[in-house]
Input
Amino acid sequence: MQIGPGQLLIRTDAIGVGVGLLRLRRDDPGASPGGEVVGRVAAVGDGVEGFAPGDRVGGVVFRDAYAELVVGVPGLVNPVPEGPAAGAALAVVRGGLVALGALRASGFRAGESVLVTAAASGAGHLAVQLAKTLGARRVVAVTGSPGKAAFLRECGATECVTYADADWGDPVDVVLDGVGGELVQRGADALGPFGRLVAFSAGGGPLDAGSLLGNGRTVTGFAVGLWNRHRAEVVDGWRAELWDLLAAGRIRPRYVEFPLSDLDRALELVAARGNLGRVVVLAPAHA
Output
């Protein structure tokens, strides 16, 4: 495979699987999807500094992610410590960054209460863990199935509810919404006075602005890509914090692994919403 100036050739160890790939396969079956990867630099294009063959890296690539060799670019691909297993590193590279970034964007402070939707997802289960380990007094996990409650309590949730429950408990200070749709409004309604909702789902959703006024609530949209383009130094700080928390055992990414040859089976698990944590496919050398 040829690479151009400013590019990196990466030999993959692990590749993430999520709902974005499901949507792309449905809407554009002929597309070559991108995604998050962890692997090692195989070759460095002209003009690239700070990377060398053999370096362990992880990040997002824009196309042909589900292959043994992929093309990435510095800025979207960053160094990965040698210690974590491929699946754990993959879970942190994107889902962990989204979870911590959304929590930080909310202005979270130790002692506050946090509610997380899509709580058993790749980003959601790490948001639950991060909120707890960084000092939340309550962490409410919201998911589609009551059968996921035990998993979520292991992740640090103090309360578990489902989307079908009419009552999500006492108001909270922070809502991290990874679902969108009608849950944006439900999340806003779950906020107490001066509560903050951070929406990080690409799904969007309607919101009655009038419902924010009486209690001084706020809603913020969050996308790692935007922060990376405009405040890269902040994202670098989040990334360093995540690796430190992982090394100290203060977060434990949960994931299920499939060989790359079983990508369809991995997608079936995601489609059925049966995964607890991240879904990962491993390149042949690691399967």
